[in-house]
Amino acid sequence: MNSTDLLFHHLPSGVEAFSTCRDAALPYDVLQPHQVHGDVVRIVDRYGMVRDDLQGVDAVITALPGCPIAVRTADCVPVLLFDPIHRVVAAVHSGWRGTVLRISQKTIRVMMEHFASLSSDLHAIIGPSIGIDSFQVGQEVVDSFAEAGFPMEKILVDFGERVEGTMRGGLHIDLWQANRWLLLQSGLHAENISVAGIDTYAHNDLFFSARHEGRHCGRIINAIRLT
Description:
Elements: E1 6-8, E2 15-20, E3 41-44, E4 59-62, E5 69-73, E6 77-83, E7 88-94, H1 96-100, H2 103-115, E8 123-126, E9 136-137, H3 139-147, H4 152-155, E10 156-158, E11 171-173, H5 175-186, E12 193-195, H6 210-213, E13 220-226
Parallel strand pairs: 3-4, 8-12
Antiparallel strand pairs: 1-2, 2-13, 4-7, 5-13, 6-7, 6-8, 9-11, 10-11
């Protein structure tokens, strides 16, 4: 396997996490839910579960060693979570709709309720996804974030007159900052949150981008497993 096939994320020992680059081969089978841009969180509590068991699910959690879980993205934000104390991992699909629905916070609450996780112990990766320069949005998206209580002064930038057919100008939302804010609000320590900082739209040569290629393009697999 070429070293550029997988982007490995740095986390404490006892866990492995990565995002696939374009056309990468997975090193092992990975359990992926059937995502719908919602906020349903599911616990993977037995080996042998398949995608059909996870219909309509956008976040998965497991404490099963050696059971890789993942979410699929192509501009949406993947959030990977690890509790090194109670040995629990989660993979969250947080596009702009999932971010507005605060799916990462809901996932953390499930980890706390079912596995006694403490948010202050959690480590998080915000993986490759669309960056603020590329995420040009309409007023309806801005309104959705504002109505959901996000700090608009931190996540919204007006780049001025919109240049038709490009991502230049117009209103832009910072999904990385929005998701980081959700994690901080949940009680994670800032030093335990890592942002990959890779804009999938701008780096379409390395990663799939639905905004660049169309929604039927390939998908990045963002996986995490307890080792």
